[in-house]
Amino acid sequence: MIDVSNLPTDLLVGGEWRPAQDRFSTPNPATGEELITLSAASTSDVDDAVDAATAAFQGDWGATAPSQRGILLHRLADLVERDSEQLARLESLDMGRPLGMSSALMLPNFIATLRYYAGWADKINGEAIATDGYLGAAVPQHAYTRREAMGVIAAIVPWNAPLMILGWKLAPALACGNAIIIKPAEDASLSILRLGELITEAGFPPGTVNVLPGIGKVAGEALALHPGIAKISFTGSTAVGRTILQNSATNFKRTALELGGKAPQIVFGDADLDAAIEGCAMGMFFNQGQVCAAGTRILAHRSVYDAVLDGLSGAARGQVLGDPFDPESTMGPLVNAAQRDKVIGLVQQGRAEGADVVAGGTAPDRPGFYVEPTVLAGTNDMVVAREEIFGPVGLVTPFDSDDDAVSLANDNQYGLSATVWTTDLSRAHRIAARVHAGAIGVNGWSPLAPQLPWGGVKASGVGRELGYEGILSYTEPKTVTVVL
Ligand code: NAD
């Protein structure tokens, strides 16, 4: 376990920690008991944070040289690396993921993202562009673009991977010279609050990074509506994403929306079945299934359907559901009681629609918000195939041909990612081109890396994060022409 008594629980605004008028409490998902209470930012706290971030952007931070921005990001990465065990423990305590996964996957991804964008900070260039001349005449002109920082960015973060997902916003935003206000999720603010202390220790000018724990409907909504914010980068549910898009229209904020998913994993008859079953199980159960890219629609060719169903049921029964700090646990609790009840409700709805519950399907009788890893057999028209469940539940559905697989894969409102399991290289590329999603994995589930653009199509979102796309999306291009 970990002592939370020394943690910051207030707002970081303009380099100072200060309490808000209201507080809210967050549970320990492994016990169901209250874990801690935190300051809840009000709309006037949001105004103050925007003022502080604007002052930093127009002052010391705006005047910081690009290479120095890179040095500061590297320094922050060093501090996160130094304290990574503590940060991993805080996340596991707060949101329930087994500690080994926080330490081995989530913190390393966060550190790698900070370092990747630290390297970009002094390589953000416009380009010189040839034209026909001034007003099309023979008078030559010199034309070029500058890529300029946008100003104040708001980053609204979900609870399922707080630091990792924050890194995809924070690191490129700072590399490009923007100031930022972070709104962590109600259910998992602790690692981000501790990060606030590390940001100060790294030496970023006050106000460059502000942290506002609080309630989405209050602090999140105030950020989305605020005219002083240039861009809002949101990861969360599709419903809230839609509200943010509407609220952002007040001042035509740039928006990056990373929303929900219902990813298909297509297992062809020629797949390496052991690898496919292991990969599909990871796609269903990693992080207790609370993953936007969770591969929860398993489409299995009829020739391997029974084997896939058996294999996944065995994988579900092989999971060890337990305390996130027990090294034997492969799955912890879901984040809160509402999430557990929503998942169980959807499984019951699936059962009522005729899905077979082949493994799991219930919440074990113990304290905390645990749900058994669950495998359903059913069809693509059932609610459990249409809705994002955001829990450890996968549905296995048979298909008969490549066309059939593609049409089932595409028959969903979401389009974040998909996985193709086959040993036929040509088929892999053909299917990758036809499935409508932001990212396709072949023979491996969701290999996230800072170098690779990430984001969805359809109801899975707007825009891309990570990679060079991240640099483009945190700068505005400006065209300059000079008549010579
Ligand atoms: P959520 O939408 O409920 O909350 C996300 C964040 O938005 C929280 O910080 C919350 O406080 C804030 N918020 C809530 N209401 C708001 C409002 N009206 N205005 C502004 N902000 C508001 O999502 P969640 O339950 O925390 O996260 C789970 C969802 O996130 C799932 O749907 C999942 O698929 C999605 N997700 C997507 C990705 C991706 O990369 N596409 C990654 C992780 C999670």
TrEMBL record:
InterPro entries: Ald_DH/histidinol_DH, Ald_DH_C, Ald_DH_CS_CYS, Ald_DH_CS_GLU, Ald_DH_N, Aldehyde_DH_dom. The keyword Oxidoreductase applies. The keyword Oxidoreductase applies. Belongs to the aldehyde dehydrogenase family. One of its GO terms (molecular function) is oxidoreductase activity, acting on the aldehyde or oxo group of donors, NAD or NADP as acceptor. The lineage of its organism: Bacteria, Bacillati, Actinomycetota, Actinomycetes, Mycobacteriales. Signal peptide: none annotated. This is Aldehyde dehydrogenase family protein.
